[in-house]
């Protein structure tokens, strides 16, 4: 997709479709919207009066453009004004997604507000993301050429710079790469295959290291190995280092660690059958960090960044881990496994210890970790925990710039007592009450450098079609991690 910055009034733009965000405050038309409506011959006001578009009811509506030099107007429910980059990214995604399958190769995108570079980068990433089809992963013979049509060019009215749009397009491509990894089925993308995919990043100048089970055993990664011991496909630990990682040997270095459970049956603490097929998405954290590393390598290869992805299948095989088993972590702590479905925290623990020993001075882990995140925050907002909070503020600000919505939760160490056991240093499940917080408290035992844990359990994939995305992986956290990495050394 081509994205091009243009100037001038939206009423003068020539394109197949002009996308216009409508805000709740537009019940009485704002001056900018009223001016466009007048130039169209009253198309917008008539669509609202007739009920073709109601910002309290409709997500999007495609109407004739009247006297304007475009074929159609795409009225988009943008909610309330505010949340800059987040809103811009959502508008961009809704606009291009609505035109999938349409004969509308040229779209003009108007954000209405005087947005900054961050918002336009997010809008560009959203526009690219809106053309994504999860059906493209494996293809469908019933799809015709007409059904496969997408927007080919986006004219960004009032964009601050072409550079911001180009950066956003690269981020959008990275998000698509991460979505493809997450959407691939468990019989296709198991730990060894994910390692093969990671190897492809060597073409982008990255150094890729793959640890196999024997190597992990030598290093004492008992938590990671324990989770994967019941599966036919053995675990792998993937490490992707950008050129800047070695260059910064004596300085700050950022490690992004992603949970990579290629399929999560729950192990012997087996999950209910309903919706278990979605558990192929339990590798979304790993997909996010690999996609972020690929994107940063293309935009700023000198960034001191390493992506770490512990990959397993959590299966109830004859050699599967049992409730009551005690395993030893790489940092020497012993863990009693009381629930084999609390596996993500186990593989992250060993991976973060390994990242620290590789020289990471700052860590962010990303994981589809708890159902409690989904219950508390739903599909729009990712929860994060930080130690110290100043590092968390930097991560949250990076997400805000990228058009993602992160929300800080308290790292309440008072819950540490819920993990006590007479059989080991700690158990892996502290009970249901406060489980979102308790999961972070567990992880905090295995990291000593500045650290943030991001739970993307509900933001990683959509269970149903939405105006801004298809059912399946969303690419959650990719843009936020790219934003953080790109500004990592600047902030220091």
How does this structure look, described?
The chain has two domains: 2-160, Leucine Aminopeptidase, subunit E, domain 1; 186-491, 3-Layer(aba) Sandwich (Aminopeptidase). It is 35% helix and 20% strand. The chain has helices at residues 31-40, 43-50, 84-98, 117-130, 162-183, 191-199, 213-219, 222-228, 243-247, 284-299, 344-357, 371-377, 389-402, 435-444, 478-486, 488-491; strands spanning 2-6, 15-22, 60-64, 70-77, 106-110, 153-157, 207-211, 236-241, 254-258, 260-264, 305-314, 326-328, 334-336, 362-367, 382-387, 406-408, 426-427, 451-455, 461-462, 472-473. The strands form four sheets. Strands 7, 8, 9, 10, 11, 14, 15, 16 and 18 form a nine-stranded mixed β-sheet that branches. A six-stranded mixed β-sheet has the order 1-6-5-2-4-3, sandwiched between helices. A three-stranded mixed β-sheet has the order 12-13-17. Strand 10, helix 10 (284-299) and strand 11 form a beta-alpha-beta unit. The longest helix is centred in the middle third of the chain and has 22 residues, at 162-183.
